Amino acid sequence: MSDLNDPRVLFAAERTLLAWNRTTLGLIAFGFVVERAGLLLKIIAPAHTSPVSDVTTFWLGLAFMAIGVFAAVFSSRQYLALLRTLNPAEIPQGYKPRWGLFVNGVVALLGVILMVMLYAGRA
User: Fold this and answer.
1) How confident is the model at residue 122 (pLDDT cuts 50, 70, 90)?
2) Residue 69: count of CB within 10 angstroms of its CB
3) What is the rounded CA–CA span in Å between residue 102 and residue 25?
């Protein structure tokens, strides 16, 4: 339990959570771009692409997306653990510190849905 009785502790943790959220979004978006790179290569130069590159970009893209989803879930767990250590004096009255957890959860869920859709479209 924190003894600082300063709301800046909460705000610093929230900024860290939001930084992880941006990282998560970047990883998921980058994974999507990598996954679609195989399709783009096939359209641009169909004679020069091999099935290995198509399969490689697909799984590499899904791996980046999975890392992004993991980062969202893990950073949310870390933030929740920190919230449990704060005193009521460290949370401003009327402030809802769990909103960031909700946003991270939605991003993780949408990342999983995107991965499933890409995988299902592959079959």
Assistant:
1) confident
2) 22
3) 14
Q: What long-range pairs does 34-41 form, CB within 8 A, spacing at least 24?
A: 34/60, 34/61, 34/64, 35/60, 35/61, 35/62, 35/65, 35/118, 36/61, 37/61
For the cut 80, the answer to whether the pLDDT of residue 108 exceeds it is yes
Q: What is the pLDDT of residue 3?
A: 66
All residues at 6 or more sequence positions from 105 whose CB lies less than 8 Å from its CB, including other chains: 72, 76
What distance in Å separates the CA atoms of residue 78 and residue 85, rounded to the nearest whole number?
Answer: 11
From residue 57, how far is each of 46, 50, 69, 70, 75 by CA, in Å?
15, 11, 18, 20, 27
- Tokens matching residue 73: 């879930």
- Scanning the chain, the segments in alpha helix (DSSP H) are 8-44, 51-85, 99-122
Return the H-helix or E-strand segment holding 86: none
pTM of the full structure: 0.86
